[in-house]
């Protein structure tokens, strides 16, 4: 078959068009998933001021080592009265707002070795459960808490850890199933890990009918007014007093 010059020109244009649109619809290589460490590194600028403030506070008044260290996200960071409410227990609060479980792992060396606690009280996971349009698998969130737990035990095999449950806050009703799953995994881990205790904060946050006590929450329906921390004290302090007594009386 022979083609005229006009036919050849049309054919050439057709080949270019096909190549152009073919390239437009070519499959795009999937981006490599971001690791927890990479995500934590990107978020460091957000937390760096908190750690500078910790360093300044430590320089002004050197904290006692070997005490009880509260770590976690803003639920604990905003508990500014925790040392007074837990007195006479030797409590230091080093939670930093907005943090996720990966951030607790990434900043482990700036928290645990610095203060050498005998007891850690841990609250983190709420921000992981809310991040992104699709809920993250609770098993992945739990795996990062477990990594923190393992690092704590490697640092001090006799360390105690009290895990405070993630709250079923009204701002994320659609993700309560994931909250419950994460808490269940953490509860099972604590039950099977020496020196670990799980405490459930959620019973204090609902009324007799099981509905959230909105009076305890700020307008964002996530963070708390001071009366909520009174409730948390009622739940946590007896557990912490028992754990501390065991630590102090250990030969």
Describe this structure in words.
- By secondary structure, the chain is of the alpha/beta class.
- It has one domain: 3-Layer(aba) Sandwich (Rossmann fold), CATH 3.40.50.1110.
- It has eleven helices and five strands.
- It has helices at residues 5-24, 36-42, 44-60, 74-77, 82-86, 101-106, 112-115, 126-130, 138-155, 176-192, 226-248, and strands at residues 68-72, 91-93, 119-123, 160-164, 196-199.
- A five-stranded parallel beta sheet has the order 2-1-3-4-5.
- It is globular and about 45 Å long.
- The termini are far apart.
- Mean pLDDT is 87; it is low at 7-11 and 14-33.
Q: Architecture in CATH? A: 3-Layer(aba) Sandwich
Radius of gyration, CA atoms, in whole angstroms: 25 Å
The CATH topology corresponds to: Rossmann fold
Q: Whole-Å distance between the termini?
A: 98 Å
- CATH class value: Alpha Beta
Count of DSSP H/I helices? 11
Low-confidence stretches: 7-11, 14-33
The structure class reads: alpha/beta
- The strands making up the biggest β-sheet line up spatially as 2-1-3-4-5
Q: Quick one: biggest sheet?
A: 5 strands, parallel
Fourth-tier CATH superfamily name: SGNH hydrolase
Considering DSSP H and I runs of 4 or more, what fraction of the residues is helical? 40-55%
The helix/strand order is: HHHEHHEHHEHHEHEH
């Amino acid at each position: 078959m022979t083609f005229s010059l006009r036919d050849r020109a049309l054919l050439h244009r057709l080949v270019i068009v096909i190549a152009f649109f073919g390239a437009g619809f070519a499959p795009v290589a999937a981006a490599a998933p971001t690791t927890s460490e990479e995500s934590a590194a990107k978020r460091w600028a957000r937390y760096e001021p908190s750690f500078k403030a910790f360093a300044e506070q430590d320089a002004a008044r050197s904290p006692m080592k070997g005490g009880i260290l509260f770590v976690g996200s803003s639920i604990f960071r905003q508990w500014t009265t925790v040392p007074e409410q837990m007195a006479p227990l030797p409590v230091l609060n080093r939670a930093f707002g907005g943090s996720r479980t990966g951030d607790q792992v990434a900043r482990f060396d700036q928290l645990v070795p610095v203060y050498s606690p005998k007891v850690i009280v841990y609250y983190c996971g709420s921000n992981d459960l809310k991040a992104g349009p699709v809920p993250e698998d609770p098993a992945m969130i739990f795996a990062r808490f477990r990594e923190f737990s393992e690092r704590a035990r490697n640092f001090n095999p006799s360390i105690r850890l009290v895990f405070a449950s993630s709250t079923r806050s009204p701002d994320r009703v659609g993700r309560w199933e994931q909250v419950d799953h994460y808490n269940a995994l953490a509860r099972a881990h604590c039950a099977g890990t020496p020196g670990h205790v799980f405490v459930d904060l959620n019973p204090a946050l609902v009324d007799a009918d099981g509905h959230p006590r909105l009076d305890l929450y700020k307008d964002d329906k996530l963070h708390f007014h001071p009366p909520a921390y009174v409730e948390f004290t009622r739940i946590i302090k007896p557990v912490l007093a028992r754990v501390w007594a065991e630590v102090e009386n250990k030969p």
